[in-house]
Amino acid sequence: MHFWHAAHFAEWGRTPLMERSLEWYRSILPSARSRAREQGYQGARWPKMTAPDGGDSPSSIGPLIVWQQPHPIVMAELCYRARPAAATLDRYRDVVMESAAFLASFAHLDGARGVYHLGPPLIPVQEYHPPRETWDPTFELEYWFDALDIAQRWRRRLRLAAEPAWEDVRRRLAPLPVAEGVYLAHANCPQTFTERNRDHPSMLGALGWLPGNRVDRATMRRTLDKVFADWRWPDAWGWDFGMVAMTAASLGDPERAVDALLMDTPKNTWRANGHNWQRAGLPAYLPGNGALLLAAAHMARLGAFSKTQGARREGLPSGSIY
């Protein structure tokens, strides 16, 4: 969840506040390397739920979640964007390189098809899917692609040759899974996601949150339509509404982006003190605050706020927070 807690600082010109927590990755790098080696991977595998020393907290879900693995690469890139200097490269070099090494080694090659797959087992962003029956989740595939591309960019900045293994994985990652004209949560999903339309609508995160380099805009637009029509919003989480808004804005639909931010549903409840209320036992959900700030920055960059009234639904430039 670190991305939602801290990435917004960089978007609002307060990158040093993000770096205060980003430093933690350097401090637990030995633990993350050890975890990767124990599991047969290269590089560093970061925990999902953790103690301060980087150990995995007891959970039947956390150790199988992988969508946090690219976070340090992307957040280091946000630091470099704010301060493009050799000192930034030196500070986060090991974190970026070790993260990328894990991403590449986690993907496994299907020799018959010539493509790399993610999982099984894994638990995707939408945690509702059983790990042994889940592979090639849409969001994670796109995040892997982008993070490996950023890591190669860092190698060039460091005057290093591109890493061939990383590039091979990036170029031959499995395609984003599609059925009935929409993106699925993962490749082994039911043909439509109406049977599991709860928790995070993570397939939307491949565009908006991410640049969407492999995303077909027409397919994503149909996916956005289907999510708006069929998703069980009371079962969503506070950061989902900001994520959906970023997708809509990147598709040139500023009105729907604002609709996502203002959706009248329990998990999108905001108290007078600014807290994003989720339920009685979770009255303050900071990822929701972070997602709202990220979405506002993203929409402002694309001109979505100024075009909300009577806006054309096509033609806004696409992009992501980085």
Keyphrases for this structure?
322 residues; mainly alpha; Glycosyltransferase; 2 domains; two-stranded antiparallel sheet; 11 helices
What is the CATH top level name of the largest domain? Answer: Mainly Alpha
Number of strands: 6
Structural class: mainly alpha
- Name the strands of the widest sheet in spatial order: 1-2
Walk me through the structure:
- It is a single chain.
- This protein has 322 residues and is mainly alpha-helical.
- The chain has 2 domains: 1-175, Glycosyltransferase, CATH 1.50.10.10; 187-308 and 317-322, no CATH class.
- It is 45% helix and 4% strand.
- The chain contains 11 helices and 6 strands.
- The chain has helices at residues 2-11, 15-27, 29-38, 71-82, 86-106, 138-157, 164-171, 217-230, 238-250, 254-261, 286-301; strands at residues 108-110, 115-117, 178-179, 182-183, 269-270, 276-277.
- The strands form 3 sheets. It has a two-stranded antiparallel ribbon with strand order 1-2. A two-stranded antiparallel ribbon has the order 3-4.
- It is globular.
- The chain starts with a helix and ends in a 21-residue tail after the last helix.
- The relative contact order is 0.11.
